[in-house]
TrEMBL record:
It is a multi-pass membrane protein. InterPro entries: AA_ABC_transptr_permease_3TM, ArtM/GltK/GlnP/TcyL/YhdX-like, MetI-like, MetI-like_sf. GO terms for molecular function: L-cystine transmembrane transporter activity. This is Amino acid ABC transporter membrane protein, PAAT family. Belongs to the binding-protein-dependent transport system permease family. Signal peptide: none annotated.
């Protein structure tokens, strides 16, 4: 096969595989990211509130959870959930295992973001809320959390973009997201370099769109920040 024929073959492979990769991204990668991030955010908020509570057992439990997740690789966590749990009689399908793994990971890392955002709110805001008769829970819900949410948006959005890329690890537990589709096409075409470059480009497209959304959100939020 001469150079021109090989070039035409590669172009043909890339052209035919582009839409399947995007389709896999929209069908699996994006939903997996959205579901895992949403559940992880709920878990992160609960963990952050547990960390700043006065109930010692809850504080210790939250710290232990964050320590375990942050101290072990995400890939290992996915393998334990999908391949390890069946040995204990708990069998999960690949997508459910991926959602659980990513949710736990997102919850641990983002709990630190939310906790730091809550602690960054000046003590005077708490005192102002108490002065108008609010309880601790009311002050947290009506005064502190809205301000903390504004502070935490940029790092949380960065976490969301990172999760889009991390979902490629789901291919290792047989979830048919973008990277696994790329692997299947590579196995059939024997063009790993160009296929992996193409799937990297598709990930870049997704992340670029999200980065643009993040920039707009940050500019909108800046209007509410006192100079």
């Amino acid at each position: 096969m001469n150079f021109d024929d090989r070039a035409l073959r590669i172009i043909d492979i890339l052209a035919n595989s582009f839409l399947p990769l995007v389709e896999a991204g929209l069908k699996f990668t994006v939903p997996l990211t959205l579901i895992s991030f949403t559940l992880g955010l709920i878990l992160a908020l609960a963990t952050a509130l547990a960390r700043i509570s006065n109930f010692k057992p809850l504080v210790l439990l939250a710290r232990f959870y964050v320590w375990i997740i942050r101290g072990t690789p995400l890939l290992v966590q996915l393998f334990i959930i999908f391949y390890g749990l069946p040995a204990s009689g708990i069998t999960l399908d690949a997508l459910t295992a991926a959602i659980i793994g990513f949710t736990l990971n997102v919850g641990a890392y983002n709990s630190e973001v939310i906790r730091a955002a809550i602690l960054s709110i000046p003590k005077g805001q708490w005192e102002a809320a108490y002065s108008v008769g609010m309880t601790n829970n009311q002050a947290l819900r009506r005064v502190i959390l809205p301000q903390a949410a504004r502070v935490s948006v940029p790092p949380l959005f960065n976490s969301f973009i990172s999760l889009i890329k991390d979902t490629s690890l789901a291919a290792t537990i047989t979830v048919t997201e973008m990277f696994q589709i790329a692997q299947r096409i590579t196995a059939a075409t024997y063009e790993p370099l160009w296929m992996y470059i193409e799937v990297a480009f598709v990930y870049l497209m997704f992340c670029s769109v999200l980065s643009a959304v993040q920039n707009k959100m940050e500019k909108r939020l800046e209007r509410y920040v006192t100079k």
